[in-house]
Amino acid sequence: QVQLVESGGGLVQAGGSLRLSCAASGRSFSRYKMVWFRQAPGKEREFVARISWSGDSTYYADSVKGRFDISIDNAKNTVYLQMNSLEAADTAVYYCAAARGSWACDYWGQGTQVTVSS
To answer: Are strands 107-108 and 78-83 parallel, antiparallel or unpaired?
Structure first.
């Protein structure tokens, strides 16, 4: 069974940092892009960042560009989201996803809560 399991969420103060992890299992993801999304209360889910399985291609939402860093450890089948200079607006449930195509995500994790106090 394919599983994506997020971890590392928690409560941090504004300006602080947090590192999220997404452990992928159940299949080969060599042809997949790994993606981070987030959803804040009362808002739609939004794209945060993505990375190719090889790690040689990354892309970030404008709202996090320069503050967040996505990376991957293929040997551990784990994708990371390093979150720096956190703001209250970053408060959301963060989801890990895997997409083989360009138009939809095939697998989703359960999400991990990130709360930034101002």
So the answer is: unpaired
Residue 43 has what pLDDT?
97
Name 29's Cβ contacts closer than 8 Å, sequence gap at least 6: 53, 77, 98
**Based on the number of CB atoms within 10 Å of its own CB, is 58 exposed (0-12), middle (13-18) or buried (19 or more)?**
middle
Query: For residue 85, which phi and psi values (nearest 5 degrees)?
Result: 45, 50
Q: Which residues contact 93 (CB under 8 A, 6 or more apart)?
A: 38, 39, 40, 111, 112, 113, 114
1-28 tens-digit pLDDT = 999 999 999 999 999 999 999 999 999 9
Three-state secondary structure readout of the chain = CCEEEEECCEEEECCCCEEEEEEEECCCCCCCEEEEEEECCCCCCEEEEEEECCCCCEEECCCCCCCEEEEEEHHHCEEEEEECCCCHHHCEEEEEEEECCCCCCCEECCCEEEEEEC
